[in-house]
């Protein structure tokens, strides 16, 4: 959420929030400023664990599901169009007689959504700033056809709007699954487990005694709970970069994320690698898949004494690392 854009709209762009009542912030990142907002009236709706935790630490009320009605709902526009429409539709239903504010960057599709909204509601105002727009309209408009609930793929798997690879298993995970040894055994974790497809492939190994699915996006983890029904599976809504199991693991498998918004950020994958080394037993091993261009080798060399490329193509590399050198906290 560009707080500059929102604060500009509140200070000089004509946006006036209701004087009383709760104000919901949909999808606001944990470091977003609250300039122009009364923190005591704010309720953040956030399903991404690191941001959820950041708001808690700031002393702001934060939920994973909205409990309206609200005097106003401020929607932080996500990248995925179906999730953006769903947030706006929910906001309108949750603010009858109130106000809906939509704040988004051009790269996240605010121009197209603004055009679509003009055919559905009367825009009360808008400002353009920081490569995006902030616009607002009266709540209560019927936008029910913009709701997008979790849905089943032809395979029967449940996915949800906005989660990674919501239309099916991604090619990198498929490549990693094919490269995994048939002899995997013991206690494992899937860091960044998403909606559970890779975890289900891991669990085809009978010698796996338990598998921890660690996922920061609650919507994805909720789908994984439906998709992975094996009794050996344990589910954790957590940040994979600081999650710690009860005891050290025999193996970690992962297809780590490498984007923050639209910007590629290899530091996320690097943090996953150091976390894997931290939670593995001395004999433990890591298997990961990454886009060919991502510079993970230096971090692997710092965190493990042995690293081998065991597969891949011009798009992906599949790496195995052994003998973790980082001490477990």
Automatic annotation (TrEMBL):
GO molecular function terms attached to this record: S-adenosylmethionine-dependent methyltransferase activity
One Pfam family, short name: MTS
Keywords: Methyltransferase, S-adenosyl-L-methionine, Transferase
Stretches assigned to the Methyltransferase small domain: 159-320
Keyword hit for Transmembrane: no
Superkingdom, taxonomy of origin: Bacteria
Protein name as catalogued: MFS transporter
Originating organism: Mameliella alba
């Amino acid at each position: 959420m560009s707080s500059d854009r929102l604060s500009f709209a509140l200070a000089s762009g004509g946006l006036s929030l209701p004087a009383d009542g709760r104000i919901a912030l949909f999808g606001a990142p944990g470091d977003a400023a609250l300039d122009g907002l009364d923190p005591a009236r704010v309720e953040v709706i956030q399903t991404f664990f690191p941001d959820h935790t950041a708001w808690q630490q700031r002393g702001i009320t934060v939920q994973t599901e909205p409990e309206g009605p609200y005097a106003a709902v401020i929607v932080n526009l996500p990248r995925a169009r179906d999730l953006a429409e769903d947030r706006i539709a929910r906001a309108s239903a949750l603010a009858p007689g109130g106000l809906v504010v939509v704040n988004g960057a051009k790269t996240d599709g605010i121009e197209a959504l603004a055009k679509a909204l003009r055919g559905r509601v009367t825009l009360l105002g808008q400002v353009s700033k920081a490569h995006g727009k902030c616009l607002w309209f009266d709540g209560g408009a019927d936008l029910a056809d913009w709701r997008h609930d979790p849905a089943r793929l032809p395979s029967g798997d449940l996915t949800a709007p906005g989660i990674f690879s919501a239309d099916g298993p991604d090619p990198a995970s498929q490549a990693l699954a094919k490269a995994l040894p048939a002899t995997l055994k013991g206690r494992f974790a899937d860091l960044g487990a998403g909606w559970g497809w890779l975890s289900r492939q891991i669990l085809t190994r009978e010698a796996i005694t338990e598998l921890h699915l660690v996922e920061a996006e609650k919507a994805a983890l909720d789908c994984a709970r439906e998709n992975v029904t094996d009794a050996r599976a344990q589910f954790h809504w957590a940040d994979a970069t600081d999650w710690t199991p009860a005891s050290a693991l025999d193996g970690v498998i992962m297809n780590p994320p490498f984007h923050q918004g639209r910007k590629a950020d290899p530091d996320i994958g690097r943090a996953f690698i150091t976390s894997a080394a931290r939670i593995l037993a001395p004999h433990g091993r890591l298997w990961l898949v990454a886009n060919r261009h991502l510079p993970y080798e230096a971090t692997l060399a710092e965190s493990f004494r042995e690293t081998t490329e065991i597969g891949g193509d011009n798009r992906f590399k599949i790496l195995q690392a052994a003998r973790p050198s980082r001490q477990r906290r």
